Amino acid sequence: MGEQKHKAYWLRARVAHKHHKVSFVELFFDLVFVFALTQLSHRLLAHFTLLGALETAILLLAVWWVWVYTTWVTNWLDPDSGPVRAMLFLLMLAGLVLSTSIPDAFGEKGLAFAIAYAAMQVGRSLFTAWSMRRDHPVNHRNFRRMTWWLAFSGGLWIAGGVAEGEVRLGLWIAAIATEYLSPAIGFPVPGLGRSETSDWDVEGGHMAERCGLFLIIALGESILVTGTNFSDMDWTLANATSFLVAFLGSVAMWAVYFNVGSGQASRILAQTRDTGQIARLAYTYDHIIIVAGLVLTAAADEFLLTHPDQPGDTAIAAAVIGGPLLFLTGVTLFKRVTTDRLPRSHVVGLALMLGLVPLALVLPTLALAALSVAVLGVVAIWEQVALGRAPPLEET
Predict the structure, then answer these.
(1) 187, 118: one domain
(2) Do 14 and 44 have their domain in common?
(3) Rounded CA gap, 159 and 152, in Å?
(4) Whole-angstrom distance between the N-terminal and C-terminal Cα of the chain?
(5) Are residues 95 and 29 in the same domain?
(6) Is residue 225 predicted with pLDDT exceeding 70?
(7) Are 180 and 247 contained in the same domain?
(8) 319 vs 342: CA distance, rounded Å
(9) Which of 174, 187, 181 is nearest to 142 (CA)?
(10) Which of 79, 179, 229, 301 has the greatest CB tally within 10 Å of its CB?
């Protein structure tokens, strides 16, 4: 009786052919990380160099990793239970420390970033392993293995926070590489073995909804930032057109991801036996490319609003083309994993996006941005029309 009560209290109850809806506390938790994405976009704008891009990429990989690991945890643990909710609130507090330190993470606030990140990763994994000790022995062992790896990488993060300059950069590259490699090889630990993808019996519908809602909030934040910037500008024809193009870009991204792909992925993940394999590739790895595209696009929108008539700027062009290119690449890989096919519309879209690169030397920012948005629009419409004529889950 005691164990049954414990199980009902700590773990989500699984019901065949149904998935748990995302709870309000999970959405509340996401707000901290959308703030982190905004911080990353602003940091990239302030350090728009190759080194600045590398540093921002490392921070983005860390922010995504702590969010997506928590998403996996709430796939099993009930966020509406008191202890799990308390854990999420503590993670939010640490996440605020993490987010506010992002602008100066490679400066004076590096140690604060590292300690907050390591505490979140190790603390959450220890809590999850302890919560599953009675009723989910397979995942209990999985999270014990994970904790060892996160403790090791956490040491690298903190050591990097103490160090400076190139040493910090090197240690943090080693730390994030360790964290991204470890699940791919099964978190092997002497005496504890390694995890198999079949061990991670995730509920596909919940995972798909979590990632989808996170992207919705991120797109919404991008629209708010664009609107705020536009409200402070002179409402000239060029500025108004730039505002419209930035908004249409968000709409096009929404259509490319949500109009078809997210629903298909949820259904396919619910039907597959090895949900862990697909969830790891499609949602844990592929989605980081999508999120990176959103961050870079947010920077591009800032450039678009402030420099609509500036031609031939390679840095601005890299953001204007690179953001949608990264986003479309991530969505293409995501749909390749979940549907076992490469959408022809997306492949052509990627080729068209690359074809804009030579034009970046002569076109002003506004024209280049309009063309990149047009490519995304073509991809979304093509896929919708093609799937409307084809059998379910196939595209011609």
Answers:
(1) yes
(2) yes
(3) 11
(4) 55
(5) yes
(6) yes
(7) no
(8) 25
(9) 187
(10) 301
Q: Which residues pair with 364 in a beta bridge?
A: 311
Give residue-wise pLDDT tens across range 137-176.
Answer: 888 899 999 999 999 999 999 999 999 999 999 999 999 9
Instruction: Tell me which amino acid residue 38 is.
Output: T
Q: Which tokens hold the place of 332?
A: 């293409």
List the one residue out of 196, 72, 86 whose CA is nearest residue 145: 196
Enumerate residues 6+ apart whose C-beta is below 8 A from 159. Answer: 171
Where do the H-state alpha helices sit in the chain? 2-10, 24-46, 50-76, 82-100, 110-131, 137-162, 165-184, 204-231, 237-258, 261-271, 275-278, 286-306, 314-339, 344-355, 365-389
Asked if residues 76 and 136 have their Cβ atoms less than 8 Å apart, the reply is yes
User: How many whole angstroms separate alpha carbon 201 and alpha carbon 208?
Assistant: 14
Q: What is the CA radius of gyration of the chain?
A: 21
- The gap from C-alpha 207 to its chain's centroid, in whole angstroms, comes to 13
* Amino acid, res. 224: L
| Domain hosting residue 233, numbered range | 204-389
pTM above 0.85, yes or no: yes
Residue type, 260: V
The pLDDT tens digits for 308-367 are 888 878 889 999 999 999 999 999 999 888 887 888 999 999 999 999 999 998 999 999
